[in-house]
Design brief:
Structural class: alpha+beta
Number of helices: 9
Order of helices and strands: HHEHHEHHHEHEH
Bound molecules: flavin mononucleotide
CATH topology: NADH Oxidase
Length: 210
């Protein structure tokens, strides 16, 4: 199927068929796609939390403005950010570059000290802002991969992050929830399933400057 057909096929699914579950392979594909997401300086200050426990999913409905998708989807993906980007995070990344790419410290030393200095001067809020931007990139990436893999999904900002953090005990992992992405398979009775896509024309949304 060509990519545009896949993107036309996908929609923000309102009603999932709770009896249909992702296969282990499909879940693995989404995990790998998340890990392959481009991030600022490659620091990956994001984490994918996967909720499968049904009682836990049910308990999150009330913190999601009663949107049932979070309970009825096969898996509830919660895209989280690190509370902060630490010196250790930066050093771990550069050390991994040395190991994985078999390169010498001198080839990256300048960039390493630049990042340590830059992030060291930033506020925790700024670290989290960068994390959030990266979380949205991961969301877009996952939505496209879901479309290609014929997995239904609903991107969601409609939830209360503080409540999710509490229920999922995210503080323990120094994480904060930013976006929610229930994934699974559409229920054939979903009223949105057959709705025509509402979009600007390509000419309206693009501007070519020659
Ligand atoms: C960041 C973001 C947050 C969204 N939050 C919600 C949400 O909480 N609940 C919901 O049903 N749809 C949500 N949507 C879905 C959009 O309403 C939907 O993508 C848009 O109307 C376009 O429709 P389509 O995705 O079906 O083509 C969200 C979409 C994005 C990108």
């Amino acid at each position: 199927m060509d990519i545009i057909k896949s993107l036309e096929w996908r929609y923000a699914t309102k009603k999932f068929d709770a009896s249909k579950k992702l296969t282990a392979t499909q879940l693995e594909t989404l995990k790998k796609a998340f890990n392959l997401t481009a991030t600022s300086y490659g620091l990956q200050p994001i984490r994918l939390v996967i909720v499968t426990n049904q009682a836990l999913k049910e308990s999150l409905v009330e913190h999601s403005f009663n949107q049932r998708q979070v309970a009825d989807a096969s898996h509830l993906l919660v895209i989280c950010i690190q509370e902060e980007i630490t010196k250790k995070d930066i050093n771990d990344n550069f050390n991994q570059q040395l190991e994985d790419r078999k390169i010498e410290e001198e080839s990256i030393a300048g960039f390493r000290s630049f990042l340590l200095d830059t992030f060291g001067k930033m506020s925790t809020e700024k670290h989290q802002d960068i994390g959030k931007l990266n979380a949205y990139i991961a969301l877009g990436n996952l939505l496209t991969v879901c479309a290609v893999e014929k997995i239904d999904a609903c991107p969601m900002e409609g939830f209360i992050p503080a409540k999710y953090d509490e229920v999922l005990n995210l503080k323990k992992h120094q994480l904060k929830s930013v976006l929610v992405l229930p994934v699974g398979f559409r229920d054939e009775s979903d009223f949105m399933g057959n709705m025509v896509k509402v979009r600007k024309t390509v000419n309206q949304i693009t501007l070519t400057i020659d």
